[in-house]
Amino acid sequence: MAMVWVNRIAAVLMVCLMFFLAVKRYVFDDGKLRSNRRFTIATVYRISYPAEGGPDADYQYCVNQVTYKNSASISTQKPQPVVGDKFLLKYYPPDPQVARILLDKPIDSLLISKMQIDTCGR
Question: pTM for this structure?
Answer without folding.
Answer: 0.70
